Amino acid sequence: MHSIFISGAAQGIGAAVASLFCRENYKVGIYDLNISLAEQLAEQLGPNAHAGYLDVASYESWQTALQDFEAWAGKINILVNNAGILYSGNFEKSPIEAHHRTVDINIKGVINGCHAAFPFLERAAFARVINLSSASAIYGQADLASYATSKFAVRGLTESLDIEWHKHGIRVMDVMPLFVRTAMVQDMQAESIKKMGVHLSAEDVAQDILKLVQRKDNLLVPTHQPVGFKSQFLYHLSRFSPQFVNRMSNLLIARKP
Length: 257
Hints:
Blueprint: E1 3-7, H1 12-23, E2 27-32, H2 35-45, E3 49-53, H3 59-73, E4 78-81, H4 96-122, E5 127-132, H5 145-164, E6 170-177, H6 191-196, H7 202-214, E7 224-227, H8 229-240, H9 243-254
Parallel strand pairs: 1-2, 1-4, 2-3, 4-5, 5-6, 6-7
Helix pairs in contact: 1-7, 3-4, 4-5
């Protein structure tokens, strides 16, 4: 039985991933700052679920959580770096503390997770890392500057480690959803969400993560997986369109009526 460790798993996309993988008979680690919510979810999901505390901005917290999960599950096959935060609004009007916290959680948190999990993944017979990137990593979004920056960093880390860790038999991939119906996008102040809408569920993202985990590895398995039609369209448009076309498209998305 494979095991999966999920950061930020008490609610939203993380909880959907935990629920789906439990149904698929994986041993599931539900780790979150909100330990009470994590424990409630683990109790609901049954004996294949285990809850624990994790502050992704703390490397020591990662080490403790991973050791705890391996002791319970016996091994760690899959790491899902799901924990993240989003601040929206005009860049210059947002407190600098919000920008710094975005970096601490969305960038340092993923770096911490990958680095701390490496020895656990290296000794597993099957190992994959799935990072939560975003369609905001396809082209930077107005009013989401720090969030988009953080997701570009996740995209770059994913590509780099997918090459670097090939020799260790560890695939590193990411999913790139557009806006997902979770608490994160409530009251979001960005014109893009009004223009593009919120059509994805947390379960949609979880299903794509499961597909990436279960696909047999070969050269055709992509590093990036856009989630949903709109994200796929934007991803492929950015690859084949001239840069000025991408910029004009995003200017139109960001333009207020």
